[in-house]
Amino acid sequence: MTLPKNNQETIRRRDSTGALRVAEEWNWTADHYPRRPGGAKEDSGSGSSAHGALISPTRSWKPFEQYAILRSSVRRGTVPACVVRISRQRFLRRAQVTERKLTLTDHESGKTLDLPVVAGTEGDPTLDISRLHSELGYFTYDPGYGATASCKSDITYIDGNEGILRYRGYPIEQLAENSSFLEVAYLLLYGELPTSDQFAAFDRDITYHTMVHEKVNNFISGFHYNAHPMAILSGVVGSMAAFYHDKLDVNDPEQRDLAAKRLIAKMPTIAAAAYRHYMGWPSAYPRNSLKYSERFLHMMFSVPAEDYEVNPVAAKALDLLFILHADHEQNASTSTVRLVGSTGANPYACTAAGIAALWGPAHGGANEAVLNMLNEIGSVDQVGKYVEKAKDKNDPFRLMGFGHRVYKNFDPRATIIRKACHEVLDDLGQADPLLDLAMELERIALEDDYFVERKLYPNVDFYSGIIYKALGIPTSMFTAMFAIGRTVGWVSQWLEQSATPHRIGRPRQVYTGAGERDYVPIERRN
Ligand SMILES: CC(C)(COP(=O)(O)OP(=O)(O)OC[C@H]1O[C@@H](n2cnc3c(N)ncnc32)[C@H](O)[C@@H]1OP(=O)(O)O)[C@@H](O)C(=O)NCCC(=O)NCCS
After folding, report:
1. What is the pLDDT of residues 279-290, one digit of tens each?
2. What family is this (predicted)?
3. Considering the entire predicted model, what is its pTM?
4. How far apart (Å, rounded) are the C-alpha atoms in residues 238 and 218?
5. Which domain holds residue 36?
6. Whose CA is nearest to atom 30 of ligand 1?
7. Residue 275 maps to which CATH number?
């Protein structure tokens, strides 16, 4: 198939013998161009009110965008009711490229295999290699799964090159600006933004599940006084299965939904209890009158001796951070949740595994590592030295909060949080020298060839720690904060997986160890 050039288009399709033939030929005229309801000219920017004004593809539109619009209008034989610029991927999908196949030839055996192309709503096309081993005898090798899609998912879309993140189709920027964490949680879990009634019911459900069994508090008090909150969180969440063993049927959608709500509701309660245990403070119970993020701050910082007023600026900032952390498609911890979930394990075990994966400094532990790094750098005049260390391949030091497996242009969450960081510090009347240090580090690194060539940009964790610090949250709690927000992503992905047919996750390996050899008795070994 060719893109329209000089108003001419030829579509070729393979016939039953596999030969490519001209299937359709189009000669485009200006009449085929779509018109917009109300008639505003798409590219004028002037909001022209002339009814039925022509939408001509503009020079700024890429060829496939023009193409998609042209085709869609002619296919219907009329002007479309609503014309939108669509992405290349959606265009490819509409153009039924899903029927495409890639043919793989094994030159040794002479065998060939057609690999079907799986196209999603958006994103690069993906090869279905599930028949590769049975037909040609090959596995694939992809360490770190950099080029492997492990599942199909309707939840989150990321375009790393364009810096796009969308939950259920909604851009993260719009959700950060207009929504609340609990509304986003509903969206991620159920696929749509809630109506007021749906939201009220959901809010009520979450609120009434926030309290934990008193024995959970006993369990927490058994930890060593300076236990890391993530150790407590993963242990206690895993233990929740022991409290709800009568509601662990993963094949029952109602029980799954209940477990999802319990996890989202109780995670802040457990995280706050872990902090209070470390501080040696008595338990604080969840207040139903407060909203999700307010309630968490109350459980963290209130003491029996005096009243605690939740600062609305702090609650809003926290809510924003939870939104930004809520989901991130098949990242390491979410893939862990899905892998454990694929065995049929209960949701508490899956989530505990996700927490453990999140803890690593290459993943959710990075926000804690960023603050430690900034403290280690100490002052602006040391920044250059540390940038050099980060570039030195013989030095294990890396700039924490820089780089991302998927985002190779910018992390849209970092853009939002960077702005919020300044606003929160201003609103709270705090001047943090670490922010100045972070800004200088960002400036120098972004000008440096090493970082530019490798497309290493500040990620969400680079700034989140500074906000958490401004809210009075101790460094050791940073990753636990991330876990609270991400719980909704984990359970949404687990719910999606559980509701669809799936196989147990079981990757293969390239064995590089010793070949077969005979056992040697111990007395004959030297
Ligand atoms: C996020 C991260 C794990 C992604 O890893 P990845 O996709 O496997 O990328 P790689 O480790 O292959 O890095 C690619 C190159 O950039 C370099 N690089 C990546 N992140 C770097 C960093 N933070 N500081 C210095 N160099 C870095 C690597 O050394 C490598 O260089 P090379 O090509 O010369 O060998 C990695 O960038 C990192 O460790 N960042 C710091 C931790 C962090 O902020 N994590 C939070 C993620 S939200």
Report:
1. 999 999 999 999
2. Belongs to the citrate synthase family.
3. 0.79
4. 15
5. 8-86
6. 454
7. 1.10.580.10
